[in-house]
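User: I'm curious whether this sequence folds into something compact or stays loose and floppy. Could you predict its structure so I can see for myself?
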Amino acid sequence: MTPDPELIVIVPSRGRPATARPLIEAFAETCTADTLLAFAVDAADPHLHDYIAATEPFTEAMLAVNYGETSMVAALNTAAESLMAWSPTTKAIGFMGDDHRPRTVGWDSAYLNALEEPGIGIVYGNDLLQGERIPTQVAMDADIVRALGHMAPPVLTHLFVDNYWRDLGRAAGCLRYLPDVVVEHVHPFAGKASMDEGYARVNAPTMYQRDSDAYADYAGSRLTADVAKVKALR
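Assistant: Here's the prediction. I'll summarize afterward.
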């Protein structure tokens, strides 16, 4: 494993170890930069050993095991904090779901090149589902994560994270969409995967309403401060 990779992509995952190998293989086939894939998995996940078995043979992937962080956002934030401490010179931190698959060769180099442009701090590609509307997968300058103290608002559990990245990037004037860079979202809503217990749980009406209310409150009370912190970096 290369010390201090240029880009670390965090994939929170729970109960889906079968997704690890296809995602690792997609990275191996498409990455051209020094990029590390880090699965954020809870220590209490009954499938933890299956994740270990899936990732051990590959140098481009690792596990970031957390303790007690069972929501996607908590796992993402915990992993981001620990990985930035482990690799302090990493330029960018990214997110994908375990159901994303990069298809464009050199997608990671394209993200890093975009982040080198003046004023650009958040970048995303075409997921073939939401497209430009919201960044369901993303990479951002690691300094943004340091300045905010999180990748996603801790008040959220799973949903509206992509809305936050879009709203933050637009308001800070640092968002870039790359329509020709495909990172496919293999999601049931696109007819590309089966609806399992995990999908059903996080897309339940109660979960949607909870995160919708939480993000509305956050956007009304704290997003402006986050935007100011990002603008200050420029």
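Summary: Strands lie at 7-12, 35-42, 61-66, 92-95, 100-102, 122-126, 138-141, 175-185. The radius of gyration is 16 Å.
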